[in-house]
Design goal:
Rossmann fold; 6-stranded mixed sheet; mitochondrion; 12 helices; 13 strands; 41% helix; alpha/beta; P-loop_NTPase
């Protein structure tokens, strides 16, 4: 019995000795690992971290590590939201304002394609109404906000608060209601000036709605004078003016299409001008235009090179004699003088040629007018804000491009030839037109 007890005690003592030796070896190994980490200059904290990692995370096989990475990537992919391939679109923001009952809501209904009953006035707008329209040909979005004509809402609502930096504010009146035009001078103009309803960079357009031409009580001359008065009161260079027959869907679509294309063309001119100044490559230009929201089709269709397109020859227009140098002409007056002639104009080298029609160009016909641009005999300037006046000796030619930016581009090109300097696309300075 004593022999068994002694054997058990000896075995317990030997096992205890083995455990103590293992603990000693482990402590020695840890001490060696810690010393090696300290010798590598990692610091005490880094050594401890490395020691913990080596103890708690034993080395795994490469295959197992790859499986874990794949699983974590799959979990992250399922938990993360789906990414949409979003292609930015150029957006034009328009705000319509005017008295009650002038026809703002009818314009938006026509634009949306909703049925509009003649002689039936729609329900008045409460606060504001919103409409979105996609211009399919230009791939441009129009965001249109209609401000209610009820003046009680104008304490908190105005064009500046309804839309973030609107591009165009359309002041709408009805040609059959003279009071709606008079309120532009007595209410909308002063309030826009005193309370800063319209941002400085926003263009203003006076829009006359024609429900029935037989009931017209406001003539075009009175509306143009009102537009000029608004420009002076609001301290603007120009307030555009146009009329639209709201009874036809096509006319309404053309109105907003013209507004959208005008804003987009000004922005396109500004962006391309900035890219030329920094000598951007073709790839950088394409990427920047795409990022801005312009489609390749719109960009290629509205390129200002080569210099060609339809212009109106206004050399014999008596209205131009009334314009002083630097005075603004009506860019969108909607009608030309009886003495004006629409021609196809091209700049071929140092010759400005004009044809009676585009068909004559395709058929190889001789130009109706061929002007050699020489520094010693020619002089060019901008007349009335948009008309290009070209004086060659004793002859005077005046052409009206379709847009102000195009006029600036043509004038820069002609002046480049008159300066007798080789002209490239990079030499043409685009007008700095602010965009909201």
């Amino acid at each position: 019995m004593k022999r068994r007890t002694s054997n058990t005690a000896s075995r317990a003592a030997s096992e205890k000795g083995k455990r103590s030796s293992l603990r000693g070896a482990s402590s020695n190994a840890e001490a060696k690992t810690l010393g090696a980490a300290q010798r590598r200059g990692s610091g005490a904290d880094n050594a401890k971290n490395e020691l913990v990692v080596s103890v708690e995370r034993p080395a795994r096989s490469t295959q197992q590590a790859g499986v874990d990475v794949a699983k974590s990537a799959e979990i992250e992919r399922k938990s993360s939201p789906k990414r949409l391939n979003y292609v930015p679109k150029f957006t034009v923001r328009i705000v319509l304002a005017g008295d009650c009952g002038v026809g703002k809501s009818a314009l938006l209904s026509r634009l949306r394609g909703d049925p509009v009953l003649l002689g039936h006035a729609p329900q008045p707008t409460i606060g504001a109404a919103f409409c979105r329209y996609r211009m399919k040909e230009s791939d441009i979005d129009l965001k249109i906000v209609e401000l209610s004509g009820h003046r009680a809402f104008h304490q908190k609502l105005c064009p500046a608060t309804l839309s973030k930096k609107p591009d165009i504010v359309g002041l709408v009146y009805n040609v059959s209601d003279p009071s709606s035009l008079e309120s532009m001078r007595t209410y909308w103009g002063p309030r826009s000036l005193n309370e800063k309803w319209i941002p400085e960079q926003t263009r203003i357009m006076l829009i006359g709605i024609v429900d029935d031409a037989r009931s017209r009580e406001v003539n075009i001359d009175a509306a143009k004078k009102t537009a000029s008065g608004l420009a002076r009161a609001l301290k603007r260079k120009q307030v555009d003016f146009t009329e639209v027959e709201s009874s036809k869907d096509g006319n309404v679509v053309d109105l907003f299409t013209t507004i959208g294309n005008g804003v987009a063309l000004r922005m396109l001119t500004q962006v391309t001008g900035q890219l030329k100044k920094v000598n951007a490559s073709a790839l950088q230009t394409k990427a920047m235009l795409r990022k801005t929201g312009f489609s390749e089709e719109f960009t290629s269709r509205n390129k200002l090179e080569p210099l060609c397109g339809f212009m109106t020859d206004r050399s014999d227009d008596p209205e131009l004699e009334e314009l002083l140098d630097g005075e603004e002409d009506d860019e969108d007056d909607g009608a030309e003088s009886a003495s004006s002639t629409k021609r196809w104009v091209e700049l071929r080298g140092d010759h400005l040629v004009a044809f009676a029609s585009l068909k004559d160009v395709k058929n190889g016909a001789l130009p109706a007018c061929d002007i050699e641009i020489r520094p010693d005999t020619c002089r060019a300037r901008l007349l009335g804000g948009i008309n290009i006046e070209l004086v060659v000796g004793s002859k005077r030619y005046v052409f009206k491009p379709p847009a102000r930016t195009v006029a600036q581009h043509w004038l820069s090109a002609i002046n480049g030839l008159l300066a007798n300097a080789p002209m490239t696309v990079e030499d043409i300075q685009e007008p700095d037109i602010p965009h909201s």
